[in-house]
Write a structure and sequence with these properties.
Number of helices of chain A: 16
Structural class of chain A: alpha/beta
Shape of chain A: globular
Strand content of chain A: 5-15%
Oligomer: homotetramer
Radius of gyration of chain A: 19 Å
Helix content of chain A: 40-55%
Order of helices and strands of chain A: HEEEEHEHHEHHEHHEHEHHHEHEHHHE
Distance between the termini of chain A: 42 Å
Largest interface: A-B, 32 and 26 residues
Strand order of the largest sheet of chain A: 4-5-6-7-8-9-10-11
Largest sheet of chain A: 8 strands, parallel, barrel
Number of strands of chain A: 12
């Protein structure tokens, strides 16, 4: 598994594995020529889960489970601490099943990060004999404030080693979310949440949904590259066929934001977020916060990139006349 | 005729004779992040015409009538047997009129194929003195379970040797379909079926329609290449003018699926189908099965291509949470 | 004037002076898989103005007034005679004002052309002291069956020598159309007829409208090239600005076809027509006939091009199941 | 500040800093084949602010504050005098705060320009202790007929030296517009005016709005180049993110034209105007006049460009049958 995870990371950094189109480009915030605020008074604070973050930007969980992943997680943790924003880790399965690699995740607990998000896969909850204990262990590993249960059946179904057992996931989500004291969110990993799925999730005890839609990194694309490297033409073609599978993040948001808000759910939008303008677009479409993933680790400097995110979020807020995140939610949006 | 058929096949393998746009790219199945099924329990079985196939994928009839065609048909028959799916042959006119080439079709009868589809042209039914006997002979030739009567007036009208007599075809379809004990389907060959044509066909005794729409191989394009080779600039230009003539397969499906279903007709969608995701798209739009043609013979390995079709169909079913083909019909579709 | 007309012709043959987009590509005729006619029984005959033509295709008036123009007109006249279709000539002003060049127009009278269309400009009717006599002289010059009065204010306003007096044109059209025994049509030359203009024309005694819309040769483009050659950057830029000015022919047809039909007007569609499929599209959108211009003289062989037009018109009629032009008018059309 | 202003000008002349798409290309005026006017009787006179201009074209304020800016302003003033049209200057802050550079603005007062527009920034009105006196000084400096207060928060928020205090601007606009005898207009500088902002402005005493929308020069783009030159990757990326920020000029016009007209406001459309056809499009969409900026100074000859503007405006008026600017407002427009 280590080798696979490392391969995933390397491919996503070195190859073009982005979806064909980034749908955030279709979302325009309406300019306010008379913002009637001062830029310096803009407050990007995001309060949620009893925590206070300097911005509704989350460093999405990306990796873990091997030495280099620990190095990446530490460097991201430094940024999360410096900018006082939320941060997740990649699927903790490896760390839960092999204590030797747990450090590659738990390293982030050494940093003062206001919101740490643990991460286990829904398929693993099914496999593990004691899923609740494992979830608690994952939380403890990184001293997490929130647990994300991820749904990644696109990836599972494309990779040869994939875990294609999905029956019972909803029940496990229900069990885990009702048993833990830590808030639980459910997180898609690049194919989006439909209305129908949102409705099912609303009947559990989860506290939020990360819609993780299509538009950024394509896991099918990564699998296409992996298959190519090992000469497996069949799986390579499969990866190409599903390269753009999924609901684009902004369209997924449009589908589910209203019913989630009405139900008091936290909505995080991940998938294709490249900068603070995309974060602002997500929030104007109904998200509470947005997750940034590959844009961060593929830039020359992740720290500079985060600085760009903060400045571009503030600029978008200034140019739409929003003093705070709450006002940003009411900004007029034009969709192409 | 042999030379012409061979030329057709060679051009369709060696030249770019695809329509300018494949309209299946406009059809998106809505992702189900919580499929709540296990991939291994997915059942792609298709039952129709009293037969059971492992998937609603048909190897569309493409060739016949000369030696190399027999080799191709045999290799496709092996795939159809291995995968237990339906298979058709190219127009059997040559084999019916010249026993020496009948083997290039009948070779498929040597294989255990669950659904074999004989193939005669509507214009030939008009020409032949005893069309019903000829149709029975065609069925017998390959031990067919179904007879397809094809409509190919685009090709007939573009090729110089074309048979441009269409008057009376409907009556012949009526006669043949009411006289034979074998079920009869009517099959377009790349230009699609309109609502008006579907209504006329519903008044005959046929059992199904293969809408064979625009989007895959363009017969006008093939004729453009043939004309170019013999220096006939007029026919070459004619081929270019009609290169993209016809109703795109998904739009043809949208037109006719509902009235055909209501009438109890089997609907097969051929035209631009490249893989199992396209098959799933066709079924979600109302087809019972989909036919794959040029994508199979232009790939490096037709067998590997079929494996890709099966895996991608299953993947699409898994990611939309469909345990069987019936459920796939109800999947939500977004059209661009 | 001779030099200018020659320059026009040379530029339109040698340079790319087509509009940026040909809107006929947006018009799709719905395929009829069961045409239920025989191609050989298709009758493309067009009867109008008491004449019978073998097809509703008109060789649009393009040139005249200098020696080479006479050669071109003669070669086009041979095609019109051979194919028994209508033919026009370019603006006859030069021939009316200078008898020495009248032969470049009158040459077509030596051929048995079923419908010959004389051509004078609306601005000239204003300038001439005796416009009705001049119009009669133009008719006599080529033994015309119809007189076209052309409106070409786009060209007039872009070319430095342009005639920019438009006031009174409608009154002159009224006078001439009510005074002559020969039927009169009004013809735009590349910028189309709006609903408002059509309504004004319906109040005169003209017998038809050639909507001459945008999509084929751009007169503004020709003027851009002429200006460039003489180093006039201002007029060159003006030509570029108005390169795509005008109402696209199919959209102009959609605007005016119905009210013209109701008023018993003949509607001819010129502008961007490249072949018989475009002719069929125009007729399905409401035209009685279509004019072909630059596509004819820029092809290697105008005669072969006409053969392509006839074959492609018949093919389009066959594939939509139309036995005659009247039926073609009722074919279903999809517009992008 | 001088260096920055010079840099702005140089970059906007030498680099590609245009928005990705010019939305005026989506606006089509409906051709009038029978204009029934004579081109020479077309009257492009624009009367506003008690002045008479030969056309509703304004040379938008672009520069000032350093020696070369004075040279440019003088050459533009010569054109404004020759063509008898309105002209503005760049932000006069530099000239107000440093008398040594005032001449680079006041030079235009030496020319007989029918409408001179002074220019101060809304943020400066906030900073200055005596904003009304400063505004009067700016008016006096160029003997202005109108004062424009510009809103340029896109630029301010992107450039590192930017003035990001926007609170109180509306109140200052109210104060200045009610205190001065000279009419005041408010002018966006490339990001457009929304309905909401227009409504706020209608409650002040201003006489007009220059909607200065997106589509022409992008100030964010200029800042991207400036940042690149000084090696500031963060600000460079910020410039790229906001390159196409703003409401496209024609869409901004569609938003606000009606309510502004009803309120008796003068509406000027600047942003992406390249020639007289764009001016005509703007007027047909509801503007009273249009401002041309970068197209003028990036052409080989600004004077020839203005000649093109006049001729193309007249041509557009001729081809839509408009004798004067009032009629142009009623021309039918098709938007893509």
């Amino acid at each position: 598994m280590k080798g696979r995870k490392k391969e995933h990371l390397e491919i996503s950094i070195n190859e073009d594995v982005q979806c064909s189109y980034n749908y955030w480009d279709d979302v325009a915030l309406v300019h306010n020529a008379l913002p009637e605020i001062d830029m310096k008074e803009i407050d990007t604070t995001w309060r949620e889960f009893g925590k206070e973050m300097k911005a509704p930007i989350i460093i999405a969980g990306m990796t873990g489970g091997f030495e280099e992943a620990g190095i990446i997680n530490e460097s991201l943790a430094k940024i999360a601490e410096k900018y006082q924003i939320g941060m997740g880790v990649g699927s903790q399965r490896a760390g839960l099943e092999d204590e030797k690699v747990a450090k590659s995740y738990s390293i982030i607990a050494d940093y003062k990060i206001p919101l740490k998000i643990a991460n286990v896969g829904a398929p693993q909850l099914l496999e593990w004999k004691k899923p609740i204990e494992m979830a608690e262990k994952a939380i403890k590993m990184i001293k997490a404030d929130v647990l994300a249960i991820h749904l990644n059946f696109l990836q599972e179904s494309i990779q040869v080693e994939g875990d294609r057992v999905a029956k019972g996931c909803l029940e496990k989500i229900r069990e885990v979310s009702s048993s833990l004291s830590t808030p639980v969110i459910v997180k898609e990993t690049g194919a989006g949440i439909s209305m129908e799925v949102a409705k099912k999730l609303l009947e559990t005890d989860i506290a939020g949904i990360d819609i993780g839609g299509m538009g950024g990194t394509s896991f099918a694309a990564i699998e296409a590259y992996r298959a190519k490297k090992r000469g497996d033409k069949i799986q390579e073609e499969l990866g190409h066929i599903f390269w753009d599978w999924g609901i684009p993040t902004p369209y997924s948001l449009l589908e589910v934001a209203e019913i989630c808000q009405d139900a008091g759910m936290v909505i995080i939008a991940t998938g294709g977020i490249r900068n603070g303008l995309d974060v602002a677009r997500a929030i104007a479409l109904g998200a509470d916060a947005a997750g940034i993933a590959s844009s961060l680790i593929t830039s020359d400097s992740a720290e500079k990139k985060m600085e760009v995110c903060f400045r571009s979020l503030k600029t978008a807020m200034f140019l739409t006349g929003c003093k705070n995140i709450k006002e940003l939610k009411d900004v007029e949006v034009w969709i192409d």
